[in-house]
Amino acid sequence: ERPAHLxxxxxxxxxxxxxxxxxxxxxxxxxxxxxxxxxxFVQCPLDALNWPExxxxxxxxILTYKxxxxxxQEVDHYFDMFQPVLATLGYQSSFCPKPWxxxxxxxxxxxxxxxxxxxxxxxxxxxxxxxxxxxxxxLKTNQVAIVAxxxxxxxxxxxxxxxxxxxxxxxxEVLRSAQGSDLLRNLRNITQKIETEENAESAIPLIVCGxxxxxxxxxxxxxxxxSSLGLxxxxxxxxxxxxxxxxxxxxxxxxxGESCHTLDYVWYSxxxxxxxxxxxxxxxxxxxxxxxxxYNYPSDHLSLVCDFCFTDPVN
Length: 315
Ligand code: NDP
Ligand code: CA
Description:
By secondary structure, the chain is of the alpha+beta class. It has one domain (10-310): Deoxyribonuclease I, Chain A (4-Layer Sandwich). 22% of the residues lie in helices and 33% in strands. Helix 4 (173-198) packs parallel to helix 5. The longest helix is centred in the middle third of the chain and has 26 residues, at 173-198. The radius of gyration is 18 Å and the shape is globular. NADPH dihydro-nicotinamide-adenine-dinucleotide phosphate binds next to loops.
């Protein structure tokens, strides 16, 4: 029997108008093909990864928080699950597969994994979508991003949302940093173009979600934190000093041992948005001795959920 859903609570971090908040979820859902065929989660029974059940656990996690914007990585069931199911729940979406997804090397795979972006169509109108294949040192890499410009239907305000999944594993820090710089360059170009088209008086605000596969000590994190785009990382607000990232966003056990890291982030334009609330993380005890994924939780990465509101509300 499957135990109850992990209990997590929102921590209030601001005092913006709760009726106008934009809820954003960042989540590496764990590709079905990688979980069953590549990842080697030695303490997770294969039975806990059985797709016909696991898909409902993924949907349960999404529906528990009902984000207005949902940014996912390792999606290898977009066309047969995420897109049709979430469309019936009012989400419009876009999917960008990885060019050479490692899922394709798994027997009986369901196609390539990639990034997917979903938004509440009642609240937002799509202005445009860009699919990026990230470059590093002029060369195209196997990592991608989606950037969508959205218009709030109630206020007319335009902002951009990005989702990405950078190169994994240690030894690839320089590549990750170059991929991050390429994404930042593209975000600058995309927002500048919209500013011109919209005759905007100020910079187009940004929210960028991703599995950066990088601890906060890496260059790619520093480059995001100090870029000219004025981005800040929302989950620092969970810490007592407001300056420290959480101790983990992913926690798994591989043959090489425990792997407990902070790799996932929600970046936002700090001049344009306040963070009203962030969803806290389960404790080590709640996660359990076998870590993730498990019968309790369908991915090795935890979801990050934040409520944003514009610092300067229009009527
Ligand atoms: P990455 O190194 O970025 O990792 C791909 C996936 O593997 C990620 O989703 C990652 O998850 C997961 N992963 C990370 N660490 C481990 C680990 N220790 N054990 C198992 N899985 C792990 O891969 P790339 O996108 O650069 O692609 C590399 C793979 O793609 C190759 O291994 C090959 O299989 C395939 N490929 C095939 C080509 C072809 O011609 N067919 C060409 C190029 C690549 P997370 O992000 O959660 O850590
Ligand atoms: Ca993974």
